Amino acid sequence: MSGVKRTRTDDVPSSSSSSSQPTTATTTNSTTATTALSPKMETPSTHLGSIEEDYNCPICFELINEAYVSRCGHSFCSKCLQRTVESHHRCPKCQLSLQTADIFPNYTLNAIIEKYRQQRPLPQTFGKYGSIVDHISDMVTNIHALNTQDLERLISVIRQHKDKLDSNSEYIHNRLLEIFLSHVHHERSGAIESLSKELHIVDQDLKQMNKRQKNSSSTSSNLNVTNSSNLNLPTNNSLKQMIDDNPLLSSNGLMTTNKEENSSSSNDPTIVNDTVPNWIQSGGQDLRATPDMKTEKQEATTTTAAIKGDCLAPRMVTTGAVVPEETNEYDDLENRTKIMMRFMDDLTNIYFSTRNSLRLTVENDGSCNGDSGLSSFRDNLAAVTKYSRCKPIATVNFVGENFAQASIVSSIEFDRDYEHFAVAGVSKKIKLYEYQSVLDNSVDLHYPTKEVACTAKLSCISWNPYLRNYLASSDYDGFVTIWDMATAQKVRTFQEHEKRSWSVDFCSTDPKLLASCSDDCRVKIWSMHNDYSVTTIDAKSNVCCVKFKPDSQYNIVFGTADHNLYYFDLRNTREPCNLLKGHKKAVSYARFLSNNEIVSASTDSQLRLWRVAEGQCLRTYRGHVNEKNFVGLAVSSGYIVCGSETNTVHLYQREISRPLLSYKFDDQNNGTTKTTNNNPTDRTKKEESGSEFVSAMCWSNRENILLAANSQGVVKVLELV
User: Fold this and answer.
1) Where does a domain end: 314, 334, 363?
2) For residue 250, what are the domain limits?
3) In 3-state terms, the chain is what percent helix, strand and coil (to 5)?
4) Highest mean pLDDT: which of 141-150, 336-345, 588-597?
5) What mean pLDDT is predicted for residues 290-305?
6) Among residues 112, 261, 317, 599, which is most buried (max CB within 10 A)?
7) DSSP secondary structure letters along 377-422
8) Quick one: 308 and 400 in the same domain?
9) Full strand arrangement of the beta sheet holding 555-560
């Protein structure tokens, strides 16, 4: 082996003299040798690239920097090797166990790599080996063969390349600015076009309103002329005789002499501020009056209206509109304007969303086109500005004189004829109150006409829509019970729920059917004629509320603890017709605002309005606080009322996402302090706790009357004015 000489590839003989083979064979062997060695001799760049790969660190794959060698003979960058040995204590190549003392500097390899670094050409890709500026700097600094001409040429090339880059950069910047300005111009032009269309709609609506007002004014003027010619105005003697004959008018001083009327009719408080109560002026029934008082007040109202219609002429403004001589205190235009300005942004959005047509057809009588949306918006505007505050007109203490008893009211409902209302709560009692008696009597403590004792805490009650005395209740033991409140006797009890039952509801179209839900994740449909449930729907989580659709016996909606509402057809209970998702916490209430719209409440402090057919959330209402308790929910004629954990009642309107008004239960001002609570310890405990909340509510048959109850057992009859 020692006599064998290792030859380089470039020393391989290629002439015929070095071989005994013929020329053809020599040529063939030479070609074969060249072909076999071609991978090592393709190009200089390939050869240098292969050499550089041998100088790369196996850890970072870069040219070795400050080479270190391990005791197993492998070389790496100093930092790469030290970091690896400290963390893994092994050689990265052969996995030999190493310690910090087993690595040493490799001075020979460092010198070779440094020499190679100075002589190697610029790589094709600088991103892998470093910055191009660093390479050019190394080249100019380390290559001493460059003369002045070479440097000037290099500077010229760099300058030309710089000018080209500056030109390209200038073009890109200018083009980018041009695209931005074009986009802004397009957006603003669209905004101007949209505003122009909206302004055109407003102008057309103003013209339509002016024409309607003029037509209304001309019609009123003709009616006044006709009435003046056909009716005989009462003389002084007849007016005096009318006053003498009617003691109610005489005692309240409703009329004076004809001369005084003509001289100061606009300033006379007996005419402008009528003595008839405001709940009669609004067109409703006087709920506070006894039958005799009702007759007297109705006669007085009729007489006063006749006198005013004969004696007072309407005023005219420059626009041709008729301005009445007197307005209701709470429907005053100024108050309504203030309310309108509070919700101007919301109302503006509603206006342009309902005004879906630019073509307006104004009829001769001033009526608006049916598809223009103006009448719809006018109704919404009137509903939003209709009420300015909420006042209590009666108070009932559900607990009575037993202050040691639990007082949370869980449910409150009117009966079919709105003559009685039932109150139920965790006190395990259902109390029935006569509504008119509560309004008529100003006593501090009202006693129920009927009282039913139950075996468990009550969670919900529901009146039968046809059998006026039948009331259904659900309780914490899972029982669903039907009561005859006329006799205060139990009619039937259903006991299939395994856990607490949260809600019960009678069907409006089929009085035999009722639905209930429970923490056992089931919704059950019952029939009053059967001992067992007729249908069961298995939900995925606890069911907190259930409600029948008002016009159907086949559709129900229920809310669950998984934050969803499920809309089912009872003819197919395998899967819901619609799944309404959007709440972030458990759904506590669900109410039908219309046949295709549902309002839901959740402990995420939100109410949501859903369109059932599309499964779409139309609006989200925020403004109340509801994070852990059931705070009540009721809907009526586009109005939504709910409670709050701040012991406050909030009123929403369908189109507005913020509360229109609020009423706060206040112990010091609502009459409960002087009513029955004479226990200082109990009073102090309640004041210190600060955990009172509104727990239940319902509407009466009048739009502006509702009942609300809180966790202290206080029931309020509230009037919206």
Assistant:
1) 314
2) 232-314
3) 35, 25, 40
4) 588-597
5) 42
6) 599
7) HHHHHHHHTS---EEEEEEEESSTT-TTS---EEEEEE-TTSSEEE
8) no
9) 543-548, 555-560, 564-569, 578-581
